[in-house]
Design brief:
Layout (H helix, E strand, L loop, with lengths): L2 H13 L21 E5 L1 H4 L27 H10 L1 H5 L3 E4 L3 E3 L4 E2 L4 E2 L7 E7 L6 H13 L3 E6 L19 E2 L10 H4 L9 E2 L11 H9 L3 H15 L5 H16 L3 E4 L7 H21 L12 E4 L12 E2 L4 E2 L8 E3 L3 H4 L4 H12 L7 E4 L17 H9 L4 E5 L24 H6 L2 E2 L2 E2 H17 L2 H4 L1 E6 L3 E9 L2 E9 L4 E6 L9 E4 L4 E4 L4 E6 L4 E5 L3
Parallel strand pairs: 1-2, 1-16, 2-7, 7-10, 10-11, 11-14, 14-15, 15-16
Antiparallel strand pairs: 3-6, 4-5, 8-9, 12-13, 17-18, 19-20, 20-21, 21-26, 22-25, 23-24, 23-26
Length: 556
Amino acid sequence: MNRFFLFLLLSFILGCQPTPQPKEVKESPHFTWDNATVYFMMTDRFYDGDPSNNYQHTQDDQPAPYRGYMGGDIKGITQKVKEGYFTDLGVNALWMTPLVEQIKGSVDEGTGTSFGFHGYWTRDWTALDIKFGTKEDLKELIREAHLRGIRVLLDVVANHTGPVTPLDSQWPDEWVKTGPRCTYVSAETTINCTLVENLPDIKTESDVEVTLPEFLVDKWKSEGRYDREISELNDWFTTTGYKRTAVNYILKWIVDFIKEYGVDGFRIDTVKHTEAAVWDDLWQQAYLAYANYKKEHSDPVLDDDNDFYMVGEVYNYYISGGRDYNYGDEVVDFYDSGFKSLINFDFKSDAHNGYEQIFSKYDSLLHGPLKGKSILNYVSSHDDGGPFDKERKRTIESGTKLLLCPGGVQIYYGDETGRSLSVEADGDAVLRSFMNWDELNAGADINGISTQDILRHWQKIGSFRRDNPAVGAGRHQMVTEEPYVFKRTYNHGSKTNKVIVGLDLPKGQKKIRVGDTFADKAKIRDTYGEVGAIVENGYITIDTPYDIALIEQVDE
């Protein structure tokens, strides 16, 4: 058979392959961001779905370990969405590192030659980086995620551009400052400064109107979109009444992602390094853009119960302090600037405590000082050098405590598979290895536990959490101390949800007190052990080989 006919035959066979259909997900009583399970991945490090867009490092531009491009892209994320990976894990929101076009070339930031693989070194806010994918790729990802009840968050940066490299232009002085470096002793020395050397900081404090950078104008003209971009900018400034300051251009470019793609929320980078008023403006425009998008589009995820969602990275924000962040000489409540949630830096330390100490603390804070707002808890992250369980010796415990804690949660890619956080690299690169798909597929041993067993544990609790908003958004109450059993109860208008959870239970047959959480003779199901039971005088009896029970009522 000649090559041409072989090609036609293969094309026909591949074309006839069935398209993966969305897996059926149990209808949740109510989606709320207070119970969100957000899966956070570094786009370049998750899955390579399109090798044709991979950046090929040459002998002349070799990166330091784990500081170059490794091939992950938008198509790779979409493939895992279609396969049901996130559905099986109980994820109801995706957050990926920024997708905008990155600087050309590399920099040496003291830990070796580094490239913009992480997405935080913006060159052009109006374009996607081809190494991550195309506009059509992003539209497909959002469409496929929404079909499965999964929201999509974009990671956005308004605080800084990318560093200057020998191959890339510097943004003009009227747009950025290159000093002084932040010293973090006051609001001024945290905001009006640069994070690190050679990372130009946007003059967000400036009220001076600026013109577009010459390199950006030339770029738009060469790409044939100059007239459209200028027309849209004119409409933006006319409609909003904003001055043509540097940050207001950037806000327009960020909001465009809602207008064009219908993203459900933003994760905002470096929040405390920018004036709170900037986030007020972003929230107002994002809220309007999202409301307009919902009016103009029919989408299974865009429901009336949820406005646009913004979660902020206020580095070293701790839930223990309530709503406030203290600069040292000034206290700011970023929740008043449009944020529904802030990333909580407390949990990685709190996770060393016992279950009841953690859960009761978070219940009292979320239903007290933070009522109406939320947080994202995490055990590891892309830039936190002190994660809980850095050696991955407590992967089961990590999943139990994180996924059952009140509030929203962030799974950092590989938490659920024991991906190493201790690779041979310097600085935060140790946290950014490629997703350990090979180890997962092989069932590799991670400190005595199979990667597949770790994943199954996270999947069971994650799915239970997704299907029961009471887990993250309900009120917590201990039922018995020994064995440890608690209940969560969620009430939102006509929507109610109740669950019972038992931890450190005896394996085999166990009698669990449920009290009045479920009516006598009610049918319940332990979703972890996959067994049913009937409530008898405030108790259930089940027989499973596990020391954990996740109990929900079975609908008649």
